[in-house]
Amino acid sequence: QVQLVESGGGLVQPGGSLRLSCTASISSAVAMGWYRQAPGLERELVAAITSDGRANYADFVKNRFTISRDNAKNTVYLEMDSLKPEDTAVYYCNAHTVLPWMNYWGKGTLVTVSS
Question: Where are the beta strands (DSSP E) in 25-107?
């Protein structure tokens, strides 16, 4: 059974920083990423990164968030800076494999940005 274990969420003041981590129990993910879901809203992509380091970001986090990946540790990170109250959401780790063609999800970690 594939597992994605997230950590690093919590409460932070506006303008602050947090670092999320997600470790997968598999090494075959061609892409890993972070999604988020705020109350009453749909889950949305935040950032994703391929196994060879190509990253893409949602417009709303460009120049504030940085995604990185350590393939040796099967771990993806999300460095979040200049956090805003509207960044408050549950953040979910995602891993995508080709063989089989699957998307795996973590259980989520809550990020709350509030003064």
Answer: 31-37, 44-50, 55-57, 65-70, 75-80, 89-97, 102-105
Gap between the Cα atoms of 44 and 38, Å rounded: 9
**Residue count (the chain):** 115
100 pLDDT exceeds 90? no
Please, what's the b/e burial string for 25-43 (b: 16 or more CB within 10 A of its CB; e: otherwise)? Answer: eeeebebbbbbbeeeeeee
Express as a percent the part of the chain with pLDDT over 70: 100
**CA-based radius of gyration for the chain:** 13
Give the span between the Cα atoms of 104 and 95, in whole angstroms: 5
Cα–Cα distances (Å) from 23 to 27, 60, 79, in that order, read: 10, 25, 15
